[in-house]
Each structure stands twice: as C-alpha cells, then as structure tokens.
Design a protein that fits this description.
It contains 12 helices and 2 strands. The chain is mainly alpha-helical. It has a two-stranded antiparallel ribbon with strand order 1-2. The longest helix has 23 residues. The protein is globular. About 35% of the residues are buried.
Length: about 220
C-alpha cells in the first residue's frame, strides 16, 4: 500500500495517547503476570517494546490485568488457534479496523493480509469502507459481506448468514463472529484511549478529530 501522504491517510508521530505507558520496572505482581504471559506468547515480539512498555491495547488493559489477561488470552486463541484460515482471519481484522478507523488494529495487518493472499486492491477498498471490495475469490466476498454487514448494522441478514454457514460450517462461523467481536473490543480500547501509532507508521485514512461531536 502507499504511504499515508499518498492516500490521504495519517502517520504516527510518536506522540503518546491519553495514558502514559506503564513501564516494566514499576508493575504490580498481577501486572507482571500479564506482561510475562504476553511476552512468552505468540505476540511477544510485537506486544512488548524494547523500550520497556506494551504496545497497542495491551498497555491500556494492563491497568486492569485480570481483564487484560482474559482479553489477551481470547485474542491469542482466535488469532493463532482458530479453524479459520489465515486469509479469512486477516480479512476479518482489516474489515473491523477499517470500520472503526482503529489505527493500531490496522497496523501490520495490511501486510499480514497481503502475505495471506488478499489482493492489494481489495485491501485498499476495505480501508475506504467499500461494501464490495475487488476480491478475486468468492470465499473472500462471502466472508467480507458477512463481517461488513455485521459491524455496520449489528446484525446479518439471512442471505449472508446462509452463504457464510455453507462456506465455513458452524464452528468456524462461531469463531469468525467471535473474532469480529474481539477486534471491535480492541478497537474501542484503542479509540477511547487514543492509542497512537509508532512514529513513522501510517494508516490509509485521515487523522481522527480529538473531540468528535456529541451524540444527539
């Protein structure tokens, strides 16, 4: 994908979000346990920064380590021990991240999606919020149509449900919906606490206004 400047997107500045990162040397016992679980798990290389703090939603969740460990554990199961094929896991994550403009959730997953076989043109369409991205496989269209409708309306019509069930089967479909919900949760954490992108990282949409209009 192009740079943020090329696409009208935004780049990380390295500026901190609404919370000051918790440093490794000043953790409670419960926080240390969550930190160690993340560091020793499949996300260890990306979740723990060499500078001594956690990345993305995990630094926020470290404030409530009992919840944080549960959330991180569910995410690890859904990402690394799911019956969904990697291509469809990445498709779900990108669709949810684009829906909520969750900057950190998008970070790296555009690359992961391409590595899993998603067309670059389709990833650009997902970033733009298009309901029908340019996929080259019918299975991708079925998965995206299901997730896109779910995250935009909170429900799925019978046609999309039947198509996804026929494609995936019951257990993988439950895991797909659970993965969708997990990344909605992650996106809410990222957005509520304005977790910033690392300096130089970019997303393909404009920066979010710091104070959105109040709901009617």
């Amino acid at each position: 994908m192009g740079t943020a400047a090329d696409s009208g997107g935004s780049a990380g500045t390295g500026v901190r979000g609404r919370l000051e990162p918790l440093r490794e040397g000043r953790l409670t016992k419960a926080q240390r346990e969550m930190w160690d679980e993340l560091g020793q798990g499949p996300r260890g290389a990306t979740a723990v920064r060499p500078e001594g703090f956690l990345t993305g939603p995990f630094d926020v969740l470290l404030r409530s380590p009992r919840i944080g460990r549960a959330v991180a554990g569910l995410g690890a199961l859904l990402r690394y021990d799911s019956e969904l094929e990697p291509r469809h896991r990445e498709l779900v994550i990108l669709t949810v991240a684009a829906r909520w403009h969750a900057d950190f959730a998008w970070l790296r997953h555009d690359l992961y999606g391409r590595n899993a076989g998603l067309p670059e043109a389709a990833i650009r369409d997902i970033a733009a919020g298009k309901a029908e991205p340019g996929f080259d496989k019918d299975a991708d269209r079925v998965v995206h149509a299901f997730v896109h409708q779910l995250v935009h309306t909170g429900a799925v019509d019978r046609e999309r449900y039947d198509a996804a069930l026929a494609l995936l089967g019951e257990r993988p479909l439950v895991e797909l919906v659970s993965l969708t919900g997990y990344y909605c949760l992650s996106s809410m954490v990222l957005n509520a606490f304005e977790v910033p992108l690392p300096e130089g990282a970019s997303v393909p949409w404009p920066p979010r206004a710091s104070d959105p209009p109040a709901a009617p």
